[in-house]
Amino acid sequence: MSSFASVRSQAVSLETQASGLLSKYSSYALSTSSEATGEETKLEKKIEQTLHKSEEVLDSLSRISDSTPSLPTVKLQQLTRHKEILQDNWRQFGKIRSTILSERNKINLLFNVQSSIDDRKNRPVDEMDYTNEESQRANALNNIADDLISRAYETRDNLLAQRSTLQSAGTRLTNTLSTIPGVNVLISKINTRRKRDALILATLIAVCIVLLFFTW
Questions:
Q1: How far apart are CA 96 and CA 102, in angstroms?
Q2: Taking the model in full, what pTM does it have?
């Protein structure tokens, strides 16, 4: 029992030490530099050593537990709790390290982009290359404008041709109708009959309205 208690005291001491180291290590996630400092690297190694040492101590406790059948249940519960704390410390250590690496990558990416922009601004401009690039852009725009103008002319010619075709067809139709005997008379009679039917229908509607008005 004394052996279990003495080994467990080491586990508690290592847990307290790991908690303090992780708290200090988490501060690097708030103010990350572009590169890891020597102090940060030493702190990472110390945390890993402390956690590995905790694993060894807990292994010792497990062996004591296995070799002591009469070990009280409360001791077994303490051993289980120490293992859970160790797992939580490993997870917290990995999470903090991932956060630091992510922030450092962002800083380095922004630094590289800014450096590229500064280099482009400070790079001397070759007047000949600039003139050639502008000339190429102007030629490309001119080609596009010429293509649009040519398409516009083609569209206009097609519309004129269609209008001429419709006018010619209308003239031929008029001439054809005028050559057929009685066509104009027939069309005139159809229009007259249509007007007469419309007049009769309108008169009938008016009479119905008047009758309804007097019968009401």
A1: 10
A2: 0.50
